[in-house]
């Protein structure tokens, strides 16, 4: 036992830390769900959403190809379709859209 700290305090801290981790995972999941809902409303597929998240997170096409085991042409095709459906024309706009959506869901 740590001097001056009772067992109950240690248990409480452990539960608080665990609860905080669970809440962060739930919050992240809810933001992803909200973004996923917006993507479905825009007519995007699950694969297009995965690509969008990676690209908005700063990944270049070559990194996405390695992560998802797809060709660069396939990545470009999915990005073009997503850009058309979301009415955007660049990766910068995509990042702003995703970050803005996540910020709106976070508030």
Automatic annotation (TrEMBL):
Residues 41-98 form the HTH luxR-type domain. The keyword Secreted does not apply. Keywords: DNA-binding, Transcription, Transcription regulation. Gene3D superfamilies: Winged helix-like DNA-binding domain superfamily/Winged helix DNA-binding domain (1.10.10.10). Pfam families: GerE. It comes from the Bacteria. SMART domains: HTH_LUXR (SM00421). SUPFAM superfamilies: C-terminal effector domain of the bipartite response regulators. This is Helix-turn-helix transcriptional regulator.
């Amino acid at each position: 036992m740590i001097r001056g700290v009772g067992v109950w305090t240690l248990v409480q801290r452990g539960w608080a830390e665990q609860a905080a981790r669970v809440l962060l995972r739930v919050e992240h999941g809810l933001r992803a769900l909200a973004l996923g809902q917006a993507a479905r409303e825009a007519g995007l597929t699950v694969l297009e959403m995965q690509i969008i998240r990676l690209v908005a997170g700063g990944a270049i096409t070559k990194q996405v190809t390695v992560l998802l085991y797809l060709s660069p042409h396939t990545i470009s095709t999915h990005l073009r379709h997503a850009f058309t459906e979301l009415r955007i024309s660049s990766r910068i706009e995509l990042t702003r859209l995703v970050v803005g959506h996540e910020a709106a869901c976070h508030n």
